[in-house]
Amino acid sequence: AWSRRWVESKHKPDYGRFVLTAGKFYGDAEKDKGIQTSQDARFYALSARFEPFSNRDKTLVLQFTVKHEQNIDCGGGYVKLFPASLNQEDMHGDSEYNIMFG
């Protein structure tokens, strides 16, 4: 299950909650499932660890896909690469990070 790999921050009690769903638009209801924000006008904080790596002398490629289904005028999403020392349950907007894009 996705919730075993991904950790939702508990830094703020009013962070929005994530759900696993294919959303409103999909080709296959099971195969197209992904993690989705479930509440409008909320901040979200979700992280997952991965094995240490080095891209020394190699290009580093980071990619993510977003499917906007809400009718809101503002908002956005981004990805941050954090150092291994990140306390995932206390992750917040001021947590130290190495790379940010989105």
From TrEMBL:
Keywords: Chaperone, Endoplasmic reticulum. It is found in: Endoplasmic reticulum. It holds the Pfam family Calreticulin. One of its GO terms (molecular function) is calcium ion binding. One of its GO terms (cellular component) is endoplasmic reticulum membrane. GO terms for biological process: ERAD pathway; protein folding. It comes from the Eukaryota. Belongs to the calreticulin family. This is CALR protein. It comes from Tyrannus savana (Fork-tailed flycatcher). The gene is Calr.
